[in-house]
Amino acid sequence: MNKIKNKKWIIGGVMVSALAAAGIASVSSTSVAEEAKTPTTGRPALTVTTTTLRQDKWARSLTANGSILPWQEAIISAQVQGLRIAEVKVSIGDHVQQGDVLVTMDNFVRSGDEVADHATQSRIVAPDSGIISAANANVGSMSQPGVELFRLIRKSRLEWRADLTADELMLLRKGMTAEVTVGEGRIIRGTVRAISPSVNAQTRYGYALVTLPNSAGVIAGAYARGIIDISGGKRTLATLPQSAVMQRGSKNYVFHIGPDNRVNEHTVVIGQRVGDRVEIKQGLKENEPVVETGGAFLTEGDVVQVVKG
Fold it and tell me: What would be the CATH architecture of the domain defined by 46-58+235-307?
């Protein structure tokens, strides 16, 4: 009798378990269906601050690299042959004035086969004031016309040769001002003296020559970086923080934030940079909010949480 009761209890237990499982399955199916009907807005991918275009007054400029070169160099040589250099009075780096004696030379006078006891002496003088940049004259050597003895940087004047593309060269005019940085941050102010009318067929670069009126202590051949003002003053332009502008290949873009807090890429055309800001020429309207920082971690369509900066 007990065995029969136990069997009934076991069977009943199985039936209860089956009913309970069916109930769970029914509840689960209902929950899935309800979730399917509920729209998903997406969890914010990142908390960001926003920024908009700001109007700034900047001078429009070109930045270029180049070398410091002599304004003009004079090559000094003997005019006659057969004279022995008796004395060399200058060396490289020496400053000379026009007419200063650089070299004295002896011209021995022969009488028959005998060398006379006297000699006429000639000399070579500086054709202009400046600094000696090369010296090849040696005592005892014989002069030869056209052979370089000295090289002179005329007036000790140096200039900056700025390497520029054809498009950049077409923006330049003689007389535009420039600031050239040499050495450890020394800035020399000069003006554009000459602009090349063509570019090199291989490099696609031409050059502009900028006078450096205060170049004392600067070494010819030194590398220099400079900024040329091409606007003649300041103009108003729209800017963003550089952190808001990203680059992919040759493309520059920002992440615009829509009303639903979703981000989308806006391609922008940038101009010059000053400090931590960059000029935006095209691609963004005034008061359009964009992600200020963290754009590198976002992709098109991400939802962001906006906080006040």
Answer: Beta Barrel (2.40)
